[in-house]
Amino acid sequence: MEASMTDPPSVDAKENKILKGTFAVAGIMSTLVIYGVLQEKIMRVPYGPNHEFFKHSLFLVFCNRITTSAVSAIFLLTSKKALDPVAPIYKYGVVSISNILTTTCQYEALKYVSFPVQTLAKCAKMIPVMIWGTLIMQKKYKGPDYFLALLVTLGCSLFILFPGASELSPYRRERESTVWGVSLMIGYLGFDGFTSTFQDKLFKGYDMDIYNQVFYTTLCSCILSLSGLILQGNLLMAIDFVSRHKDCFFDIALLSTVATASQFFISYTIRTFGALTFATIMTTRQLVSILLSCLWFAHPLSVEQFVGAVIVFGSLYARGFLKWKPEKPLPSSHKLDEEAAVPLKAIP
Question: Is the pLDDT reported for residue 6 higher than 60?
C-alpha cells in the first residue's frame, strides 16, 4: 500500500530536529552566558596581587571587532562571495561609530552597575528602537507594543532604582544606582537602538549579504577603536596590563572567541527555527545570565528587584506566546530580526 501524503513526519526527522534544536540552544546559551560572565569579570574583578582593575574598555571593543572581522573575511573568501562594499563606505562607518559607542557604554557601565542590572536594563531597548524606527524608517506601532514597552520599562526601573543593600561599585563607594551608571546605560540603549535601525535601513536599501556588512562594519570598528586607543594613549597601557596579567589576556581572548562564535549560532537558529524560537532562547539566556551572575559574583537581589525581574521576563514571555503562530524557518538570505539584525549587536 502506498504511503499517504498526510503521514506524520518520520522518527528520524523528529530526532534530527531535536538534535538541531539541542545544538542551537546549547550553542547560544553556552557562548553568551560565558560572554556575560567574562565581561563582568574583566571589568569588575581585580587582577594580580596588587588588585589592579582593567580600565581600557575600548581595547575590548578592538579585540572583539578584529576577531569578528577576520572570521567574516575568511567566510567570504571560502564561500567565494564578493568582498567589494555594496553600500558607500561612510554608511558602514556610521554603523561602526554607533556600534563602538554602544559597546563602550556597555563595558563602562559595568564599572558602576552590576551585570544583572545591565542585562535587565537591555530589555528596555525596545523603547529607543521604536523611537528610532519612527524617526528613520517611518514605522508605526500598535497600542499593545507601547503597553509592553511601558511594562518592561517599569520592571527595569524597579531593578535599577532599588539595588541590594550591599551592592557596591568597585570604582565608587556609593550605591550602584549612580547617575553616571544610569547615564551610560541610557547611552547604550540609545546608540544600540540607532545601530539596529540603521542596519535595517541598509538591508532594505541595498542587496547586502549579512557577512558583507559584518566585515566592513567590523573593519571600520577596528580602525576607529585602534585610532581611539592611540589618541588616548591607552594602547600601550592596555598591552602592558595584559602582558603583566596573563589571566586577563586569556579572559580577553576567550571573550572575543565566544563573542564571534555566538553570532554563527544566532544565524543558524534563526534560519533553522525562525525568529520566535530565537527570541525565546535569548530571553531565557538573559534570565540564566542574571541568576548565574548573582550566584557567581554574590550580587544580592532586593524584593523590588525580584518583582522587577518578574515583570520584565513575564512580559517578554507573554509577548512571545501571545504572538505565537506556526512559522517557517527563514531562508538563508533573509534579514535577521532586531536582536540579531547583524551579528555585531547581539553582544557586543
Answer: no
User: Which three cell numbers mark 229?
Assistant: 586607543
In this prediction, residues 81-92 reach a mean pLDDT of 81
Q: Are 191 and 98 in contact (CB under 8 A)?
A: yes
Whole-angstrom distance, CA of residue 26 vs CA of residue 237: 37
Q: How far is CA 65 from CA 26, 153, 226, 304, in A?
A: 24, 30, 10, 37
The 3-state DSSP class for residue 127 equals helix
- Report the C-alpha gap between 32 and 259 in whole angstroms: 7
Question: 178 CB contacts (<8 Å, ≥6 apart)?
Answer: 112, 113, 169, 172
Ramachandran quadrant class, 264 (left: phi over 0; alpha: psi -120 to 50; beta: rest): alpha
* pLDDT of residue 297 exceeding 70: no
pTM here is 0.67
- Report whether 199 contacts 345 (CB < 8 A): yes
| pLDDT above 50 (res 344) | no
Helix axes of 179-205 and 126-136: crossing angle, nearest 10 degrees: 40
Q: Report which of residues 115 and 247 the model is more confident about.
A: 247
Give CA–CA dist 112/131, Å, rounded.
26
The set of residues, in sequence order, having a beta carbon less than 8 Å from that of 117 and lying 6+ positions away, is 159, 160, 163, 176, 177
Instruction: Name the burial class of residue 246, with classes exposed (0-12), middle (13-18) and buried (19+) by CB atoms within 10 angstroms of its CB.
Output: exposed
CB atoms within 10 A of CB 45: 15
Given this model, what pLDDT does residue 330 score? 44
